[in-house]
Write a structure and sequence with these properties.
The protein is α/β, with parallel strands linked by helices. It is 34% helix and 23% strand. The protein is built from four helices and six strands. Strands 2-1-6 form a three-stranded parallel sheet, with helices on one face. Strands 4-3-5 form a three-stranded antiparallel sheet, with no helix packed on it. A hairpin with a 2-residue loop joins strand 3 and strand 4. Helix 3 crosses helix 4. The relative contact order is 0.23.
C-alpha cells in the first residue's frame, strides 16, 4: 500500500518538498482580515503585511473536517497516510488531526 504524507501549513518546506506532500492549511488573522495559509496568503504577502501593519497576526487551527477531507482523498486513492502537525503544545491542530483520524484506517 502506498503512503501519502499529510502536513499542516506550519511545515516549512521548499517548493519541491511541497509538491510531494498534501498540506492542510491553518487560518491566519491580521485583525479582522482572514487568510488561508498558503492559499489566499503566501509567505511573501505575510511578511509584507507584518511590515505594513501594527496588528500582530494570529492563527486558527485546521479543523477536523479539513483533515478528514485529506484522509478521504487518501482512502479513495487506496493509500495509507502519515500525518505530521505542529506540536500539540502549540496548537489544537494535532487534536483536529486525531479527531478526524478516528473514522479512517491506516492513518
Amino acid at each position: 500500500m502506498k503512503t501519502r504524507i499529510i502536513v499542516d501549513s506550519t511545515s516549512d518546506l521548499l517548493p519541491n518538498g511541497k509538491k510531494q506532500v498534501h498540506v492542510v492549511p491553518l487560518t491566519v488573522h491580521f485583525g479582522q482580515e482572514e487568510y488561508v495559509d498558503g492559499v489566499t496568503i503566501d509567505h511573501i504577502a505575510f511578511y509584507e503585511k507584518l511590515i505594513e501593519t501594527d496588528v500582530h497576526p494570529s492563527t486558527s487551527q485546521a479543523s477536523p473536517a479539513a483533515f478528514a477531507a485529506e484522509y478521504e482523498k487518501a482512502r479513495s486513492a487506496g493509500e495509507a497516510a502519515v500525518v505530521i502537525t505542529v506540536s500539540s503544545r502549540l496548537s489544537g491542530t494535532y487534536q483536529s488531526a486525531m479527531i478526524a483520524a478516528q473514522d479512517y484506517d491506516h492513518i
